[in-house]
Amino acid sequence: MIRRFQIEDILSQDEHGVVFEAEDRETGKRVAVRRIFPFGANGGGLKGEQVAAYEIGIQRFSAVQHPGLRTVVAGGCDPVDGMPFLATEWVEGPTLAKALAAGPIASASVVALMDRVLEVCEVLSEALAEESVWVETSPAAIIVSAEDLDRGFTFWVAPLSWLDETEGGRSGLSPLVSLFREATARLSPTDSPQVITELKRWGSWLEVNAPTATLAQARKNLRDWLVAPAPAPAPQPAVVPAAPVAQPVAVAQPTQYAGVIKPPGVGPATATQTMAAPAPQMATAVAPPKRKSVLMPLFTVTVVSVCLAGAGFQFWRYRQSKKTAITAATADPATAGLDAAIRRAVAGPGPGGPAAPAAPMTVIPPGHPSLGTWKYAFEKSKYTRTFTTENGVSYCQLAINGKPAWKVKVTQVTADDVVIKDPTGPNLLHHVVSKDGKKMKIEGKFDATR
Are 195 and 339 found together in one domain? Predict the structure, then answer.
């Protein structure tokens, strides 16, 4: 099956595998082919039941269609070494990692990102009849389609999750915690502090509940806390019932009458007694029995109702004030939120945009703290990056377990940062040296020393 694709270029390579740009010989379309290292760069491929399970997973993944997901074209295992591979449609656009490295990101974009990944995982979980985070959550694996807002953020499926061969196995929503941390590392300073507080509150909830929470719970909380709903109707004042009109009290007049005397509990009277008429007297107003005034309770109810209505309205306004800055994510959270910061990061300067920067310094000056060899380890492999200047040109060379992997020119040098173009992809790789010159942060994730 792998012979179906004509490999044209290497896009990226790391300890998890290699991604190629290729042509599908059957359709003539451009595709992305990913050769996966299930047990690390130095490990072997899949065997026996693992191969069969992987192929079943690929069939199920390929049946899912979603604009936020690279459609699976084909997949399987190389018959020679058992290494699994995955071929998907080609999706144009830079990675989220590039956008995050270029500058602060607005909260609206983070909300759109997390809502989209939860939505895609829900769709995949329904198709696979098992809930999990079925996509790659590394920013380097997420495409930002700034020119195609119908796609927004686009994800790779994670076929090894189907085999549960990933380190630590399936761990609930924990992969989303890592994605959220990276996405919120540099939020836009123009965002409302209240919005940022709410966003981080949701992130804290996710981190605490990641082992047990469901995708639906996480998405519901995200929308309840951070996605502005349709404007609520203005509260109506409480209706105060009209106070009853007091009726005039009748004045008793002296009369002569014959009455039937019937003691309480006794049946019909058997005898009648004639009562003598009282002596005539002057007409006197008889005082009615005392009645409790209904005006005071009605007044109290009215005041309490108005206060509660006012308090409810103020609370509603308070909640809405927290969501004002991310209303852009409300119309279509799955595709909205690609704010201007991301657009600039992925598209570069354009008409009306910022002016193109001056040509950067590309040669590492003598005595710069980056010069020399830096070493670090990752998943049982030892890496070194060596910075040199030869004949007026500066280079960065990578070696893995003592074997040279690649050597590229330096593209930019600042006081503490050396930038190179990723030889396996379109990204720029940063190498930031600490103030004391003893440590280097590589690509924002590796800590290297001399």
Answer: yes
At residue 71, the pLDDT reads: 92
Q: Which helix (H) or strand (E) holds 396?
A: strand 393-400
Task: State which amino acid sits at residue 29.
Answer: K
* Pair 55, 179 in one domain: no
Cβ-in-10-Å burial (0-12, 13-18, 19+) of 253 comes to exposed
Kindly state the percentage of the chain with pLDDT values over 90: 29
359 burial type by CB count under 10 A (0-12 exposed, 13-18 middle, 19+ buried):
exposed
- C-alpha 40: how far from chain center: 29
Which positions ≥6 away from 315 have C-beta within 8 Å? none
With tokens 């996509």, the residue in question is: 135
pLDDT tens-digit map of 344-354: 555 544 443 43
Q: Which residues contact 296 (CB under 8 A, 6 or more apart)?
A: none
Q: pLDDT tens, 217-227? A: 999 999 888 86
- Does any domain span residue 310? no
Supply the range of the domain harboring residue 343: 94-230+322-349
pLDDT tier for residue 162 given thresholds of 50, 70 and 90: confident
What is the β-pairing status of strands 152-154 and 439-442?
unpaired
State whether 171 and 144 are in the same domain.
Answer: yes
The number of distinct structural domains making up the chain is 3
Same domain, yes or no, for 103 and 65?
Answer: no
Chosen domain end from 90, 116, 148? 90
**Assessment of whether the complete model's pTM goes beyond 0.70:** no
